[in-house]
Hints:
The N and C termini lie far apart (69 Å). This protein has a single domain (7-189), classed as Arp2/3 complex 21 kDa subunit ARPC3. The mean pLDDT is 86. The radius of gyration is 25 Å and the shape is elongated. It has helices spanning 7-22, 41-52, 54-69, 90-110, 116-143, 147-154, 158-178, 189-198, 209-214. The protein has 9 helices and no strands. By secondary structure, the protein is an all-alpha fold.
Amino acid sequence: MTSRIPARDLAQIAVFAALIAALGLPGALQIGTTGVPITFQTLGVMLAGAILGARKGFLTVLLFEGLVAAGLPLLSGGRGGLGVFVGPSAGYLVGWLVGALVIGWFTARLLPRYGVVPALGATALGGIVAIYALGVPWLAISSGVPFWVALSGSFVFLPGDILKVVVTVLVAKQVHRAWPGLIALRSWPWSRAVEAASEPAPATPRPTSAEVASAPRSE
């Protein structure tokens, strides 16, 4: 069974897919011999998850990568086509999908407060850990190098990715403050249990004087 996506959600998905594409316009910085360029487009992926949530963030990245697969040169450096999905950076492209899901899932559970410290952790978990967990092993396989070599070579991306995490959280915090409701709120299971336990028990109503006077008495 499929569900229709509201027009507003479709517009948001399209706008953020365009944002990811626009962040590729400055080009890519190639450092080392890994074959994986440093780009700004991971920032767009993080923003999609942190602002739109897991479902819309995932669909945003999926739309963008579908256009890339169709041959549009939307990746940094004007890359596009099916070939990029079997090259050294293919694992990172798949990681973008997972990263948007992870960031969006955690962000929904941080709202409406969206504390900066837990948001930084959630965004780093999706925007760095999840993406690297898929990107680095594929890079090692496709390049024919040991895993630890691919991992150490990927550390060059880390400072820039940490900066992207910080920017994402600062922007998302302001967006959620200005436009609440972009992501449906979700709470942790144990938080619901704590809230239920902390609710005061309903007070037993005290009988009125008329009810006391009319109550039957045993002789």
